[in-house]
Amino acid sequence: SSDAWQRGVLHIGVRDRGVDVVWHIGGDHRVRLRSAPLRNGVWYHMAVVADTSRGLVQLFTNGYPVDAADISRVDTPIKLVQQVVGRESRRRYFRGAIDEVRLCGRALTPPEVKALCPDAPPPDGYDRRNIRTGYCLPDEGYCDQPYTVVLPDGRWLCTLTTGPGREGQRGQHIVATLSSDHGQTWSDLIDIEPSGEREASWVMPLLTPSGRVYVFYTYNAENIHTLPNGKPIRADTLGWYVFKYSDDGGRTWSEQRYRLPLRVTAVDRANDFGGRVQYFWGIGKPIAVDGWAIFAFSKVGKIVVDDSEGWFFRSDNVLTEPDPAKVRWVLLPDGDRGLEVPEYGDVHAEQNLVALSDGSLYCMYRTVTGHPFHAYSRDRGHTWTKPEPATYTPGGRKFKHPRACPRIWRTHNGRFLFWFHNNSVKGWQGRNPVWISGGLEKDGFIHWSQPELLLYDPESKKRVSISYPDLIEQDGRYWITETQKSIARVHEIDPTLLEGLWNQGRVREVTRKGLALERAGGPLKATSLELPRLNLERTGGLTIEMWLRLNAPATEQTWLSTRASDGSGWRMSTTDAGTVRIEIGDGKAKAAWDCDQGLLSPNKLHHVVVIVDARARVISFVIDGVLCDGGTQRPYGWLRYHDQIADVTGTGRLRISPPPEGELHCLRVYSRYLRTSEVIGNFHAGAP
After folding, report:
1. Range of the domain at 327
2. How many CB atoms lie within 10 A of CB 639?
3. C-alpha closest to that of 665 among 570, 557, 561, 525
4. Has residue 123 been placed in a domain?
5. Which of 192, 235, 584, 625 has its CA 20 to 30 A from that of 571?
6. What is the pLDDT of residues 611-635, one digit of tens each?
7. What is the tally of structural domains in the chain?
């Protein structure tokens, strides 16, 4: 720190047991970074890296990234004179030990930071699902839709939309960047289109068998920034649909841009220009199917993104034709209307595609109904089934999703993944956390698994978005890129998470890892059992599993409790609404949540599991192998609680007290959060 608290001071302290970085950038403005709580008596390596060329400041613990902030608009230099180590304000001293302090005259890369502490383990509470642990991509301040292809030599080529301002502002353009170390470091940005008066946006890359990379994007070729009546408008979703290409792995790009034959249709004729100017944009990447390629995009009738419908460009020779001027394109579907269902509103956008084993196409897209919509084509995109709310299985439960990007992928093993937000908020909100479902093809349709939590931002009180993802596969490993509009990151995904999704229903055994207590063998009697200490900050979570039977409609009754007089501990109860409720707290912070209504039928044995994921601060219920999603009663079936809950040991004893009108046939308590797939495996193992 510095004894003078003024603009430019960089203050690194400890607050609430975590490292707290504060950079004074003038007035009431601060740049802040935080680590997870640290343990006493343990050495940690901490590093703060401010990279003004990349517009990024990062915090590392033991060489692992734990937080980052965008500083592209910060013009305040860090004051490195008169630094004070070990105290602040001449009175508050650090109660610990500081072994070494280094100031480097340049921004170190993540591998260089890790090289300073090569043997240091991941810090306590390190969770790769926390997006702040990801590696950051370069940008100019604004960054969107980072999409990556793996080049023949193994390097990653990522294309994205960036700019010096915010989304839609002047200067927005498209760039490329390269990585040779799985996204830990990236090259300087390479202009595909320079920043200037003509916006270039929403770039999507396609890698061909020859190694050529095409990029498709919206280009404001005619430099239009006003409506015919003179009203100023955003200009990032209008113009020409064009493409460029690179034959040297993205280092350089063709000078010439080639225009796609975007024919005028009904939605264009209805826009402000009567179709003379077209509005459109695309998300995702083109896919290759049996020698041809296709990509999806959305036409728009009202600037910027309303009155939308889905369209597709298909080419039968783009993968093989060396002369880009001879590449043939056809606009699909046939006719004057794209994918839309007017009775479900005027937003049918952000279509993206996968191919099935027989060449059929499956499309997913966003709406404002609280559900994503899907459709199938059996004739290479010429015609489509009527779009309808996407379901887990044909005719089954609907997915829930807000007005956000619902992304699907086909993996190299022929299976599928679906990124969504698992809530039915009908606006732009609800994009944190992210859930993922795994899909298997059966009889020409995709059957989706129950979802797992994939990624989250620890900020739960403010509106935070995580969106526009991409999947990268290489050598049996998986990564996801995503953006928060000012920071884009790459995250390696645990392959066992994905395998668990694809194997739901096949695994039929009880997981034993983290099992702290188990009682089975028929109806359990009222009793009191000793439980080990449960500090959620250390264990990362808690899972309570019950097989229970109600002999009458549920009423307000306590079944399990460790609650102490100070409110610490947890309690499981049934309610008059016919639900199971958990209440949990540490004496200061607390949370409570119910399962969905209408799931517990009298005189039937039910499998009831509550998962307390303390890392993501999410409470969820899985009833009879199905994750609660709120049903028709509420937009969320899970709770995101705000304040960290720590020690929930309570009395240290678990009081079991099934009511007279109920039976508890099995009880398991785990000192960790179980994945949804593990819970489903327990369910299929059956009641003991």
Report:
1. 131-502
2. 16
3. 525
4. no
5. 625
6. 999 999 999 999 999 999 999 999 9
7. 3
